[in-house]
Automatic annotation (TrEMBL):
Entry's transmembrane regions: none
Keyword Nucleus in record: no
Occurrences of domain DUF7794 (ranges): 27-257
Organism domain of life: Eukaryota
Protein name per the record: DUF7794 domain-containing protein
Pfam families named among the record's database cross-references: DUF7794
Alphabetized InterPro entries for the sequence: DUF7794
Keyword presence, Signal: yes
Keywords attached to this entry: Signal
Signal peptide from the UniProt entry: 1-22
Amino acid sequence: MEFRLVLHLSLLILLSTQQLQARGESKGSVAFIDGYLQRYIRNNAQDSSGKAISMSLTEVAATISVLLGFAPPPSLPAASSSKLSQVLYPNPFDKPHAIFLLEVGGVVGYVLAEPSDYTEYLNTQAGEVFKSSISGSSNAKIELPGEDEVSVVHLDRTLDFECNDACLDEELREFASWIGGSYVGSIDSSDWKLTISLSSGSTLDLHLTKKSDLQFASSLISLVTNVKKTMAKHEVLSGRRIISSEIMKGHFSGIEVICF
């Protein structure tokens, strides 16, 4: 994905949570990703004991509200308000007003908050990356004002909804060319494969005759296509200054179909 384009136009938030049904709680992780030309997010901070900060979903939701230019909910505890100050730079007049919130399904535990190849790649693409584990209540709501003040865009259109076999073949071919990968075979052949080049230098081979691999590829292409369309729309709205704040919400389910 064109992370630098996304970060130029908005602040990116990756979120993964796993609900613990028996206790009504969740665990997971979140990454707030800032661009080079803006400074809304601090470097990862530590608490008084030297441990990385952990956030609740309520605190994540409040952080998003503030980044959109709105006050946090009055019910937010003082301790949580203090935590927001450890995440955000204290400039009430300089906010991104545009958030791209991507929920990553199938990522178990605190993966987004831990060092990995993916975090190293993000560090090369972004200005600041603030990562945190998430625990506590599984219920949280982003406090937003009326529709006249904020636009909510859902990136939920999938290839399955609008694509036949010929369309899917063309989408896969174009996607492989765009990412510098390769695409061989066809829907009716046994060697139907999409190869994706990774930032580590290795490759990911998706054997598309396998249902899970095809669903992963379709989910990835849908996400990229939706992001491109939304970024183009965002630029138009920004130029016209029609709406002061915008939140783009997407869900990537490709990992779920492979792991579960």
